[in-house]
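In pairs, describe these two lines:
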Amino acid sequence: MTNFAIRPEDLQDTLAAALGDRVQKISIALGEVTVHVNAAHYLSAMQTLRDAVGCQFEQLIDLAGVDYSTYGDVGTNGPRFGVTVHLLSVSLNQRVRVKVLCPEDDLPLVASVNDLWNSANWYEREAFDLYGIVFEGHNDLRRILTDYGFIGHPFRKDFPLSGHVEMRYDAERKRVIYEPVSIEPREITPRIIREENYGGLN
């Protein structure tokens, strides 16, 4: 017997009942349910989503940091950093997206969900490395993609495209060395060629 996916509206009702006042907002867009929770209730809400009857999200399939610093251009104000998590219930054939905002911009901090889903381990390390988001309670929070001596967080929107330093192997010293970036930033404007009847079109 095929286990058909639940209607988004029914899942929305189930999640609202399970999470109660810990949820800020539940929305549906393009057939997908998104739950917004406050950072103070994030860990508790995530545990409920994993364990509660009707939820049973056994798998964390993605977790990513977000830098909302330029979203003010489209009318969104509030904290700069956030975390978005995608959960999957194999047993109930349903998915949910969870969003949480970090209360402080200077020290973006949310609870770690690594003890609930061990798949969060590398995702949280990646968000820490690239955005500087600290996951409280993570037992091995260290960089995962950048070098050990890397300065800054390269996915932040104010991080320079060329970086701060460059590294190269120095044959005389027989080791890798770091130097200030020597590449001059430049803006390249593509040359546009307009042809009459291009491709046989009039």
